[in-house]
Every structure is written in C-alpha cells, then in structure tokens.
Design a protein that fits this description.
The protein is α/β, with parallel strands linked by helices and about 475 residues long. It is built from 17 helices and 17 strands.
Length: about 475
C-alpha cells in the first residue's frame, strides 16, 4: 500500500461542515467522530473523502464544490426531505435504537426506509464517478449499510471494506427489522466486514446464517462466488495526541485550577454524549446510592457530569435531558450545602485541552453506558493519565471492556455494585492504580487508531488475494 494508492473514505458526514455566516459560506472541520480519529491515518494515503456536507448547498455551488474537491472532499448533496427521512428517521430512530438493543424505542417506517435506500444510491452515484479499479473503498457505519452491495453490482472487482462503529445486535433483536435481509445483503457486498469486538462478529454471522443460510468457516463466508471475511478490529485512539496534550504546561495549569476550584476534593468524572444508550440517569442514581451507603464521603467528593449536547430535536432526548436536570437538582438538594455541590453539571462542548485537563484532574472516571459500540472516552482518559494515578470504572456492555480488563468492570444496572466500585476506586492504593493504568496504556499505545486502520486495510488486501486463488480454483472445477 503506497502513497500512490488511493483510499476512498465514505461516511455519512464529510470531515468538514459547510457553515453559512452572513450570507457567506465557510468550511470548518467537523468535531469529533471519525474525522478526528482518522486524521493521523489519512496522511499515509492519497485519501479522498465522500460524504454529506451537513447543509443544503444551492447557490454558489460550483465554486464551493471546486474548493472542496481541491481538498479531496466529494460532497453528496441531500435535500431536506432526504435528510429527515434517512438521517433523522431511519438512522436515528430505527437503526440506532435497535442496534443498541433498545427495541422499545425503535420506529419502523416505510417512508424512512425508502429515503435510506435513495440516499445510499446517491452515495453510489458520487463514488462511481470518481472510483478507479485499484482504489480501496472504505465505507463506514450504519448510515450506509446498503452501499457495499450497490457498489459491488456496479464495480464487481472493486476492493470494498465496511466497518460498523456501533454494536451489531443479537439475532433475536435484529430479526425485528422488516428490512433485515436487505441490510445483511447490503453489508455482504464488502470484501471485509469489520466490527469492534468478537461479540458483534458472532451476532452478525449468526444473523447471516439464520436469515440468508450462509455457513462460515473462521469468519470466512462464501457469498455467491466471492469470499467475504468478517472480523473484529477494536478501534483505538490517537494515543500520542492525548499524551502530548496532557503533558503540556497549559493543561498542567488548568488541572491545578480545577482542583483548587473543587476544594481539593476527590473528583469522579463522567463524560458522555446525551443519549439514552449511555445510562446517565442510572449513573446519577448510583452516585446517590453511594452517598447514602457511605455517608463518610459526603462533602469529600465531587461528581463532575459532563454531557455533550446531541440530537436536541428528538423527543426522547428532550425528555431525557429534562429528567437528568431534575435528578441533578434532587441529589444536590438532598446532600449539598453552601460549601459543596455534589454534582457539577456541564452541558456544552469543551475544547480538547479542557477535556484532557478534566481527565487528568479526575481521581475516578465513571463510564457506565448501557450499550456502547466501543467507547473511546475510556481510552482517552487512560491515555491522559501521564502520572499513572487514577481509576477507571467501566461498564461490561461497552466494547472497550474487552481490552481494558484492568478497569473495575461493572454491570451498569446494578446500582449497589456501582456504588461499591466507587468506594473501591476512591480507596485503591496508589501503586495498584499505577500498575493498572500502565498496563492499559501499554496496550492502547500499541493498538492505536493508526494500527487499527492499517490492520483493516491490510486484511482487505489479503482477502483480495484469497479471492483470486479461490476464483482460479473455482474455474478449474468448472472446466
């Protein structure tokens, strides 16, 4: 894989967002997600990126498109109606809840499905215009599950990889989806299908077996006359970036400020996007249980709850936000006094430096989602702990729990157990903290985001060779 080889990254969003200010149009880098994760990888390849620019562009379209294409960005233009049906509808209200095993929140809507199909076809049109035979086409996530197969039909020889960044649910849940076979067939258009952990691989293979009848051997499927490989690639973080920021004098200063502000108390930190999959109300209740069970900690700890605003228009999220606000008020009213507020609640975006300062200042990170594909916050926390002090409490239902085995792993539904874990974390001897954190750091440093992407691309190239051998054998048999 040399620099000359082109890598086409296809995802719902481009790594830039088009913003309108005072009638002018600007490009600004997108926050979070895939773009930031992959920035170190992209420097290695001749990368083109295909995605939705996040806004409807009508006027001055040509000029903007030319500017984007000069930076290797190829926009897929979607109308408001398409965005509503495909993104706000099918992606956020059908696939997201179902794949996270929240079937009670899942809405099945034929019009949204039509919009999803149509948008996947729009992506296809943009790709087929620019793709060359030797390109590597890497399709990301649940927004584009039909795309690998659409592309396969247009370009039978293409190298196509697909990676799902969220959990893949067990058969009992996946089968609830009316369009279940279409999605499996869509994904199987890829040469290699990647998930974060083996649990999701197993779920996927079981669904393929039960719904399409394909047997697999060591994660290899034969689909028609092609070999498809299904495997786990746990996504890492840009480890050095977090370590370097954590080491900077600005962050050092900020850490001192935070500790001083919180009166030298022990800090429990929790960072999440506002989402029902994250189990935030349960986490607050567990903190309440902790203060009730261990009153000696009243006035001695501060729970910093940082939530990143998300999907502010969806009704479940509005209700969730209201419920969290009430819970925070209740706990603060029950235990707090003039000197001490038990829960410090931050509901806004924080710049990366401030975030890393929080990671460094925290004694305990409490990360207990009900369901999470991976959870990179846990990994960022570990990478930021340059002195090795601190403790991670992690939910067993995150993908990260399979790698971060030195964390205190809990069932997020067991509030008593989470309360005990908090006590254990706050009382853990320093040398044990350091030992656990250093072991996790070693692993994260080795398996960083670059290694993750390299492994995926390498496996994709390998499977192409296997296919070659396979089709030769196949032809010999026919003769």
């Amino acid at each position: 894989m040399g620099l000359m080889d082109r890598l086409l990254i296809v995802s719902n969003r481009l790594p830039v967002t088009v913003v309108r200010r005072k009638g002018k149009i600007y490009l600004q880098p997108s926050v979070g997600g895939l773009a930031t994760g992959l920035s170190s990888v992209l420097r290695k390849y001749n990368t083109l990126w295909i995605g939705w620019p996040g806004i409807e562009i009508e006027n001055s379209k040509e000029d903007l498109e030319a500017r984007m294409k000069s930076e290797g960005l190829y926009p897929v233009h979607l109308s408001k109606g398409e965005v509503n049906g495909y993104y706000h509808g099918f992606c956020n209200k059908t696939i997201w809840p179902l794949f996270h095993s929240f079937s009670q929140y899942t809405v099945y809507n034929e019009n949204w499905w039509s919009a999803y199909k149509k948008v996947n076809e729009k992506f296809l049109d943009v790709i087929t215009e620019i793709a060359k035979p030797e390109d590597i086409i890497w399709i990301h996530d649940y927004h584009l599950m039909l795309l690998p197969n659409l592309l396969r039909k247009e370009m039978p020889e293409a190298r196509i990889g697909f990676f799902l960044h969220i959990p893949f649910p067990p058969f009992e849940i996946f089968r609830l989806l009316p369009w279940r076979k279409h999605l499996l067939e869509g994904i199987l258009g890829a040469d290699i299908v990647g998930f974060h952990i083996y649990d999701y691989v197993q779920n996927f293979l079981q669904c393929v077996h039960r719904l399409l009848g394909y047997e697999h051997e060591l994660g290899m499927l034969i689909v028609g006359d092609r070999v498809v490989k299904v495997d786990a690639f746990p996504m890492g973080i840009d480890y050095n970036k977090f370590e370097n920021i954590a080491n900077s004098p600005e962050v050092e200063e900020e850490v001192k400020k935070i500790r001083k502000k919180l009166g030298g108390r022990k800090i429990i930190l929790s960072i999440d996007r506002l989402d029902y999959t994250k189990g935030i109300p349960l986490r607050l209740e567990a903190f309440d249980t902790f203060l009730e069970k261990y009153p000696e900690y009243i006035g001695k700890v501060t729970f910093v709850l940082k939530l990143v605003p998300s999907r502010t228009r969806v009704e479940h999220y509005v209700q969730l936000k209201k419920y969290i606000d009430e819970l925070v008020g209740k706990i603060n009213g029950k235990y707090g006094d003039i000197e001490w507020t038990p829960v410090q609640y931050i509901y806004r975006f924080l710049p990366l430096e401030k975030l890393v300062a929080l990671y460094r200042a925290a004694d305990v990170a409490l990360i207990t989602p009900l369901r999470d594909g991976m959870n990179l916050v846990a990994k960022e926390f570990i990478a930021s702990k340059i002195d090795g002090k601190g403790c991670l409490i992690l939910s067993e239902t995150t993908g990260a729990a399979f790698e971060l085995v030195e964390a205190i792993v809990v069932n997020p539904n067991n509030k008593e157990r989470v309360a005990e874990a908090l006590k254990m974390a706050l009382e853990m001897p320093e040398d044990e903290q350091i030992q656990r954190i250093r072991a996790m750091q070693e692993r994260l440093r080795r398996y960083n985001v670059e290694k993750w992407a390299d492994d995926f691309i390498q496996e994709l190239n390998k499977i192409k060779e296997v296919q070659q051998e396979f089709s030769t054998k196949y032809l010999m048999r026919e003769l």
